[in-house]
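To: structure desk
From: M.T.
Subject: fold request, one chain
Message: Could you run this one when you get a chance? Sequence is below, nothing fancy, just the single chain.
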Amino acid sequence: MSRRDPHTLDLFDWTPPTVVKRFDERRVRAATWRDQVARAVAETLGASELSRDEIADRMNDFLGEDEGVSRAMLDNYASQAKETHTISYMRVIALCAVTGDARLLQLAADPIERIVIEARFEGAIQEAMAAEQIEQLERIKKLGRRQWRGRA
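Reply: Done. Structure tokens follow.
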């Protein structure tokens, strides 16, 4: 019988973390873009540990006095009823900042083939892009060397 070292990572039991956070497609599926945004706002509000009143208060702090976000406004933004209003861009940013949930930003980024990731991953992306460029330059270098030596 072998003992397992609790400090050693088991590569077969490891699942990479989700880098890009998205809504469950089934939870935000809607007939119109406006209704999809409303469902996404509802998902964000529902997933937060904060009450809607607390979220509204913190959004006001984030946005400043001029905005005046209320719980009723959040309820309207989360509603698919035709007489309600769609959340503004500034309020989406405030909602994401207050809840820590960037999925609303990702919902907007998906149609333009972009992703929203944590800032700490930017260096990893830059490294991968640099490695890709180095590989391309190495291919050009090898081709040039073959052509040059073939003529010499």
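Reply (cont.): Residues 8-117 form one domain. Let me know if you need anything else for the meeting.
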